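Explain this protein:
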Amino acid sequence: MSETQSRKALRGWVGLSPWEVARVAFRAMAANPLRSALTALGVVIGVAAVVALTMVGQGTTRRISTLLEGLGTNLLTVGPAQGGRGPGGGLVRFGGPATLPLSDAYAIQEAFAGEVVGVAPVAQANFQLKFGANNLRATVVGTWPDFAQVRNASPERGSFFTWEDVEARRRVAVIGYGIAQDLFGGEDPLGQRLRIQGIPFTVVGVLPDKGDQGFVSTNYQVYVPLSTYLQRLARPEAGGPKVNAIYLQGAERDRLRDLQTRLTQFLAERHGLWDPESYDFSVTNQQDALESVNQTTLAMTLFLGGVAGISLLVGGIGIMNIMLVSVTERTREIGVRKALGARPQDILAQFLAESVVLSVGGGVLGVALGLLMARFVGQAIGVSPVFAPWSVGLAFVFAVAVAHIPHPLHSSR
């Protein structure tokens, strides 16, 4: 080798090119593969946990929102006695006995005509259903025809019952998808006679498969005219028929909150109640419920992401420590390079390259592992994970930043 070539080689080793810096970094890590793998493992686990938890959290939020929106849009629900208190002082909420007078539904229908698309009072209870030798227990809902639009319950086959059916108190029924499958087997239920508590009803409609909706399973509900329900299935009530709830669909989403306020005032005047604490009814807004659910799931996602971020912090600190050990172990090499004219930034660049490979490489593997974890967890709990680019970016930036903060200190050593 000539003297000129030797000088060029010496300058190349002292002031390495970016490609040479990367090559030296890979060679240094390859010399200690187990230590490098264990160092990157903390970042892999941390990034995977953040990605998986945020994806599952976003998927859960979307699923709940879809479920709520599938129950109807622009929906207001009048329920019994949410503000009332029982003997133990606890709030009495939905699911209790029917206490709302049916006359409230007629009054709302008349007073808010033009502002609501439909009004659907509901009275419901569980009854035994029978067809041939098959029988099962399901929820039977007595309601008005507006229920099909207000609660997004249009039949897939056949049709919903009509106002003529309500006025004539006909024994007709619309059944959920699950009942059609389990009770009728392979037979077409349309036109068949279904017995509810021993009383025959003709099936006129079958709802589409709504899937597992968690707290409400419309697949296992039967809808009959409210007049028929009150006459044949419900117990006579003193003071007129009662219902469990009244559903309303507002005509305009932007005016839903105003409609909620005026509806509350209207019912309070009808019931002769002036103190909100004594209201024997409640009016809830679907948008409020949706926002509340979204806020809750977002808070849970951020909390779990923060917990996962702790493991990411631990992984970054692991890289910091390994880089510090590496500097200590290679003081001879660093000294030789500095004696040959290497500047502090050249030494810093070499160790930065090694930590970049560890943190970024660990981050890439963590994202891949997080995607797999999100898929398996989503399948286990019935949620479709939603990819959140911001979580991946945040996890990467956090891991790389933590791993590189102490390098100026390292180079000064």
